[in-house]
Design a protein that fits this description.
The protein is an alpha+beta fold. The protein has 11 helices and 5 strands. Among the domains are: 140 residues, Cytochrome c oxidase, subunit III, four-helix bundle (Four Helix Bundle (Hemerythrin (Met), subunit A)); 60 residues. Helices cover 63% and strands 8% of the residues.
Length: 286
C-alpha cells in the first residue's frame, strides 16, 4: 500500500511545502483560527447569560424598560430604539466592508479608500454611541430605586432579599416590585408595607459592579462585561481598519499587487458585527 502511495505522491510533494492547503494564505488561515477561538469565548459568555436569565427569570429586568433614552429627546422614552440604531449602523458598516473588499479584488484603490473609510466612520459611531449608553446606564434615572431586605413584606410576594424595587412616581411613597402577577402586571406595594420596605432599604442610583438600580446585580454585571468585551473588539477593529486605510492611501497594497490585508481585516470586522447581532438578541431582546 505504501508503494502505491509513493507512486501517487512522493515525499517531496507531500512534505516539501511551497503550496497552501485549499489555496488559503497563512494570514487568512490564522485569522480563521483566531475567530473560532474568539467565537468560543463569546459563546461561553452568552451561554452564561442565558443560564442566569433563566435562574432569575422572575426578577430579571426588561431591557425595553431600561434602555429607553435617545440623544436630544430629553425624558421622552423610546424603548431600545437607540440600541437598534447602533445595530443598524454596525450592520451597514459590514456592507461597506464587503464593498471595500470587492473594490480590492478589482484593484480599485479609490473604491477601497472610500468604502473602508465609511467602515471606520460606522465603527466610530458605534463606539461613541456605546460610550453614551454606558454613561446613561451608570448614572441612572433621576428617581433612582430602592434596595431593600424586609423579609416580612417580601415573603408575601415569594421574593428573597435583597431586591431592587422601582418608585412608582416622584412622591416615593409606593414601590413597584420586580415581579409580575398572573396577568403580567407588576406588583405595586403601598401604605404600611411600602413604608416597611423603605425603612429597611436604601436608595440606589445608576449601576456599577456592586449595585444596580435596574434590578438584578447579574443584569448589570453581564451588561458591563459582554458589551464591554465586544466594545473592545470594535475599538481594536477600528484601529486596525485605520492602519490598513493609511497603507492603502500610501499605495502599499497597490504596489504589492493585491489587497489581501483588506480582506483579512474584513473577516474580523464581519465577525464583530455578527457577534453584536447575538448580543443584541440575547441581552436586549429576549
Amino acid at each position: 500500500m505504501s508503494a502505491h502511495a509513493a507512486e501517487v505522491a512522493s515525499k517531496a510533494e507531500l512534505w516539501g511545502g511551497g503550496r497552501s492547503p485549499f489555496s488559503v494564505t497563512y494570514g487568512k488561515l490564522f485569522m480563521w483560527f483566531f475567530l473560532i477561538s474568539d467565537a468560543l469565548t463569546f459563546g461561553g459568555l452568552l451561554t452564561s447569560l442565558g443560564f442566569y436569565k433563566h435562574k432569575y427569570a422572575d426578577i430579571w429586568p426588561a431591557s425595553e424598560e431600561v434602555f429607553v433614552h435617545f440623544p436630544f429627546t430629553g425624558d421622552f422614552h423610546l424603548p431600545l430604539l437607540y440600541v437598534a440604531l447602533m445595530t443598524f449602523i454596525l450592520i451597514v458598516s459590514s456592507v461597506t466592508m464587503v464593498l471595500a473588499v470587492e473594490a480590492g479584488h478589482r484593484m480599485d484603490k479609490k473604491g477601497v479608500v472610500l468604502w473602508l473609510g465609511l467602515t471606520v466612520v460606522g465603527g466610530f459611531f458605534f463606539l461613541f454611541s456605546q460610550v453614551w449608553e454606558w454613561s446613561h446606564y451608570i448614572h441612572g434615572n433621576k428617581l433612582g430605586a430602592l434596595k431593600t431586605e424586609n423579609m416580612e413584606v417580601l415573603r408575601q410576594y415569594d421574593l428573597g432579599p435583597p431586591i431592587v424595587a422601582q418608585w412608582t412616581d416622584a412622591s416615593k411613597t409606593a414601590l413597584r416590585l420586580p415581579k409580575r402577577d398572573a396577568e403580567g402586571n407588576y406588583f405595586i406595594v403601598e401604605g404600611a408595607a411600602a413604608a416597611a420596605l423603605i425603612a429597611d432599604g436604601k436608595e440606589v442610583y445608576g449601576a456599577n459592579l456592586k449595585e444596580n438600580e435596574y434590578g438584578s446585580q447579574q443584569y448589570a454585571d453581564f451588561f458591563f462585561f459582554v458589551t464591554g468585551f465586544h466594545g473592545f473588539h470594535v475599538l481594536s477593529g477600528v484601529v486596525i481598519n485605520i492602519v490598513i486605510l493609511i497603507m492603502v492611501i500610501k499605495g502599499m497594497m497597490h504596489r504589492r499587487g493585491h489587497y489581501e490585508m483588506v480582506e483579512k481585516t474584513g473577516l474580523y470586522w464581519h465577525f464583530v458585527d455578527l457577534v453584536w447581532v447575538f448580543v443584541f438578541t440575547f441581552y436586549y431582546l429576549l
